Amino acid sequence: MERVAFRAMKDGTGEEYEFLRGVEQEWARGHADRILKAMLELDGGLDGYLVSRLTHCLQTATRAERDNADDEMVFAALVHDIGDVLTPLNHSAIAVEIVRPYVREEVTWVVEKHGIFQDYYYGHFIGRDRNAREKYRDHQWFDSCANFCEYWDQASFDPDYDTFPLEHFAPLVHDIVSRGPWQSPS
Ligand SMILES: [Fe+2]
Ligand SMILES: [Fe+2]
Predict the structure, then answer these.
(1) Assigned domain for 80 exists
(2) Which has more confidence, 181 or 50?
(3) Among 36, 83, 125, 178, which residue carries the largest CB count within 10 Å?
(4) Rounded to the nearest whole angstrom, what is the distance from the C-alpha of residue 179 to the centroid of ligand 1?
């Protein structure tokens, strides 16, 4: 079978849906390369900073790696702003769903909340509450997110920093994605 015959989902057969499952598994094998390709989109737009969004992401991941963060956290650092192109008003959302299947809950939480936590650095300049993160003060991963922002994210707008190129992180992305969905221990 090269393609299905149905024109409405309800008319598909079991054989056709089995065929499509195989197609989707083949498509999934290219997931890592699609993530890396999407990162390249961050090289344009958002003028006004000293570095592109791509360099910011690479620098965030570079700092995480140099601080001996584990590979799940480095992966998160790399893609944490990947949503800036398509969802600039809620940019954490896309990155959250990219990392969620492959990393522990702590890392997903950090990516999800980093937008609120980074307001600590500039929210008061643009009419937002810089201390909005305080509602999470007692959360078990507050420090993890605060440190992500302090040491890696907010610090990574430096054009003179020795930032690793995207190729450096390609094996990591392939490795993380090839692990398959991460299962939380119960
Ligand atoms: Fe961000
Ligand atoms: Fe960022």
Answers:
(1) yes
(2) 50
(3) 83
(4) 26
